[in-house]
Specification:
By secondary structure, this protein is an alpha/beta fold. The chain contains seven helices and eight strands; from the N terminus they run βααβαβαβββααββα.
Length: 193
Amino acid sequence: VKAVLALNVLRDQLDRYGEIDKTAKFIESAGEKAEVFVFNSQDPLLAKAAERLDAGKAKINSFGVVNKLTSKIQNEQNMFSKTAETAKKANFSLADVVEKHNQQQIILDCRGEELRTTLKLEGLHNALNATAVCALLADIEPVEYAKMFVAINTMHAPFGRGEMLELNNKMVTVALVKNPSGYTHNLETFVQN
């Protein structure tokens, strides 16, 4: 199965692809060649790309957050524009997140079915990524959600992405920052908590 999972279009991609509109066009172009296109409904550029792809051959699916978490999601439009668009309801939504002891309890609304799991990574962005994975896997091959969560539950932070290291008998968190959105999320996750 040829699948495209479109997480976001942010300014950290400018050095590779140019302006964010151009980056969105590249993602849309990849979607035209895919059988499955899963996109972040909170990202206006990706939502527009999905609308244009809707008439094509790809099966379209979306992930996002419920209304009460919308203000915690950063994208280019709500960070730098005075007019924000309202995201359409996603097929797979992050319904709730409770951070506790360097992990998260997450609740997902998966096409109307409520599912709960533990994620051994901190940060709303990681919970949203887990939601994206569920949306993608559900369209690639029918699989029980419980089996998906087994894999998600065993994931650990990769190098520099919220990784915790012991240094001189103190725990230090290493967090990668590439754009204003990521910087904001890392401050909220690792400094303000």
